[in-house]
Amino acid sequence: MQPSPRAYVPFVSVDTMMRLVHRIGLSQMMRDLADYIEEDFRRWELFDKTPRVAAHSDVGVIELMPTADDALYAFKYVNGHPKNMKDGLQTVAAFGLLADMTTGYPVLLSEMTLLTAIRTAAMSALAAKHLARPDARTMAVIGNGAQCEFQALAFQAICGVDTVQLYDVDPAATAKAMRNLRTSGLTLVACHTAEDAVEGADILTTCTADKQRATILTDNLVGAGQHINAVGGDCPGKTELHPGILHRSDIFVEYAPQTRIEGEIQQLDPDHKVTELWQVVAGAAPGRSTARQITLFDSVGFAVEDFSALRYIKDQVQATGIAKNLDLLADPDDPRDLYGMLQRAAPDLAA
Ligand code: NAD
């Protein structure tokens, strides 16, 4: 027995997501996504917001990230397991759902491992558009794992970065990133130390994975006018920057109550001044105001960005019909006759 068509939920598999990215083009998609995020940040106050709900173990974390506006509800399920890489698994894997606030019915179920990398990169570049010097063209990327190429390409597409200096403790990761980016049009420099990577860079991106307080950037490596895009420190006890850097920087965050738990600023007093980025986007607070200022985007990833990403994918799915139909909802013709629906299916399904 077939369920009625309205019960189907559009499903974006990994394969479908890859088709969508190749149809639209990754750079275009990251520009579009940055626009969707910017649009949602401008109406920030309309969203239900809460720090994400985390289940920690010794080796990683599993998190739920919910948010909603008047029309749509979204959540993402995401993990962070730095030790996974050694077992041939992703450090970060995710999926997410968008639902209609008026019925509570899901309207989209999507893979979000790829989408998280794309939205994180779009978010980082959007922050840098407001916080980095407008003439910034060279970026260091320290940590050349799954997020690295997406970061490099978003900064090229959105901020006009033309040179990327790469460093990873594992030279194989840097070699992989060099290979993947060779046709990007970026000038690529493989570096042997973090010091070499930051030398002459206007933007410093850290996206390393380690479940500990690491010092990927020491205080002496950061100088006047630089913008830091700190992506990897996103969990209690997991940071990348020497606290001295934080004291010399103007710090911008997504949602302060979550970032104070998870971000670089967990190393600071709870009342240390930070600016939420939506205020800069909405014109309510200044971004960079001098060329010599050190700006820091303390990125942890917030639910509203995933909401924007799912909203964007829903619009693309509606425009292209590319999604598969998922039989996720029991939706009997008579809503009170759930049992009757089960009974009527017996002749077809009992064998
Ligand atoms: P990954 O495991 O694929 O790659 C991490 C890389 O960091 C590896 O290549 C590893 O060799 C390298 N590394 C580890 N320690 C290093 C060090 N001291 N110096 C230089 N390189 C080092 O992980 P990924 O998917 O690329 O994610 C990277 C980090 O970003 C993770 O911590 C993840 O939780 C975080 N993340 C944050 C957001 C966000 O929104 N802020 C989103 C996605 C991922």
Polypeptide structure, described:
The protein has 351 residues and is α/β, with parallel strands linked by helices. The protein has two domains: 5-114 and 304-342, ornithine cyclodeaminase, domain 1 (2-Layer Sandwich), CATH 3.30.1780.10; 135-301, Rossmann fold. It is built from eleven helices and 17 strands. It has an eight-stranded parallel sheet with strand order 9-8-7-10-12-16-14-15. Strands 2-3-4-5-6-1-17 form a seven-stranded mixed sheet. A two-stranded parallel sheet has the order 11-13. Helix 4 (148-159) links the parallel strand 7 (138-142) and strand 8 (163-167). Helix 2 packs across helix 10 (303-320). The longest helix is centred in the middle third of the chain and has 19 residues, at 113-131. The radius of gyration is 21 Å and the shape is globular. The two termini are 13 Å apart. Residues 1-5 have low confidence and may be disordered. The protein binds nicotinamide-adenine-dinucleotide. Nicotinamide-adenine-dinucleotide is lined by residues 80, 85, 91-92, 116, 120, 142-147, 168-170, 173, 207-210, 214, 216, 231-232, 234, 299-301. Nicotinamide-adenine-dinucleotide (NAD) binds next to helix 3 and strand 11.
